[in-house]
Write a structure and sequence with these properties.
This protein has 147 residues and is α+β, with helices and mostly antiparallel strands. The protein has 3 helices and 4 strands, in the order αββββαα. The chain has helices at residues 2-20, 96-116, 128-145, and strands spanning 58-61, 65-67, 70-79, 82-90. Strands 1, 2, 3 and 4 form a 4-stranded antiparallel sheet that branches.
């Protein structure tokens, strides 16, 4: 009998504890999507029909985009009017979870940007804010490059 009471009390305490814990962040109004006033990617204006080799080659730094979890900023390298490299200059890193998400998401975002040669890239699941900040900073750099 004493075991049953102890088990019930322990289980109840655990349930109460779990219910009082708050998540790292709220998921936003639409199940993980950033609110409309948050860092959302702007429509990309680049594409194969707009490319032209008269654009200057070089490195262009995108605007630093402040997201809910930190600033995201990228620099790009353009050769012959094509996006050839993306370097992440700033990423959310306030705590271990932010660094973990950035470490997972940023290489995938970079790979997709290099494949698409534009800022029209899919967000990485679980990194909505970082993905949106990355895309906006990337688009800013592409705009500066005239690509």
């Amino acid at each position: 009998m004493r075991r049953a009471v102890l088990t019930a009390a322990s289980t109840s305490a655990l349930v109460v504890l779990l219910l009082t814990l708050k998540p790292h962040h709220d998921t936003g109004p639409a199940g993980g999507e950033p609110p409309t006033d948050a860092a959302a990617p702007t429509p990309a204006t680049t594409g194969a029909t707009h490319r032209n080799t008269s654009h200057a080659n070089g490195t262009y730094t995108g605007a630093p985009i402040t997201t809910r979890y930190g600033t995201v900023q990228v620099a790009i390298t353009v050769k012959a009017g094509q996006l050839t490299a993306v370097k992440v200059l700033q990423a959310p890193s306030e705590n271990g979870r932010d660094r973990e998400i950035a470490g997972f998401a940023l290489p995938r975002l970079t790979q997709e940007a290099l494949h698409a040669h534009s800022a029209r890239i899919d967000a990485v699941s679980g990194a909505s804010y970082t993905s949106a900040g990355y895309a906006r900073s990337l688009q800013s750099a592409l705009d500066k490059a005239g690509v």
